C-alpha cells in the first residue's frame, strides 16, 4: 500500500468521481475524510469502503461557506491529526447559453467550483507548510478550454488551472506539490444531463472511443499523490481518452 498511515481529504466524495477517489486512496492505505454537502451520501460512501469505520469518516461541508469549511477541516484534523493529501473535487454545473445565464447561475458555480477550492485549501495548507509535506490535487475539466452552454463552469475550471499553477510556485519550497487533473467524458450523474446524440458524437471522434470511468480519474489522483510523482508540480493532466486532441 502506497499511503500507509497517511490522511486524505476528498471533497464532493459522496458519489461519482469523488467516491471513486476515496475508495482508491483507502485501498492504498489512507485514512480518508469523505467530505460532502450531502451528509447522507457521505456516510453511505464511507460505509461502503470501510464498514468498520476504522479508517474513514464522513464530514458535512458546504465548500462555498467559510465557516462550514473551517469547522469541517478542524474536525478532520482533530480526528486524524494531519492532512497529507487534499483532493479538491467538489463541483457543480448550472448550464445555460450565455445570453440566458442568470447572475445567480453564474455566482453559484463560481462559489462552489472556485471559491470552494480557495477556502478548503486555505484551511488545510498551514499544517502542510508546518510539516513541510503535502499533496494537493485539484479536479479541473477539459471544459476549462471552453464548452457551449458552460460559460460559468468553464470559467471556474480554467480558474482552477491558474490557481493550481500559482500554488505550485508558492508552496514548492515547503515540499508541497499542487497539480490539476482534467477529466473528460466520465460516466457520472453529471453526464446524464447531456443528450445522447452529443455523447455519441464525442465517442465517434475520441481516439479511445469509450466513456471514461470514475476509477480512471482515481488512478491518476493516486499517482499524483504518491512518491512516484514527488518531482511533478504545477501540471495539468488530462484524463480524457484523447478528447483534448480531437
TrEMBL record:
Pfam families: adh_short_C2
Keyword check for NADP: yes
Domain Ketoreductase span(s) in chain numbering: 6-184
Keywords: NADP, Oxidoreductase
Gene Ontology MF: a single term: oxidoreductase activity
GO BP annotation list: monocarboxylic acid metabolic process
Signal sequence region: none
Recorded superkingdom: Bacteria
Similarity field: Belongs to the short-chain dehydrogenases/reductases (SDR) family.
Protein name per UniProt: 3-oxoacyl-[acyl-carrier-protein] reductase
Organism: Sporolituus thermophilus DSM 23256
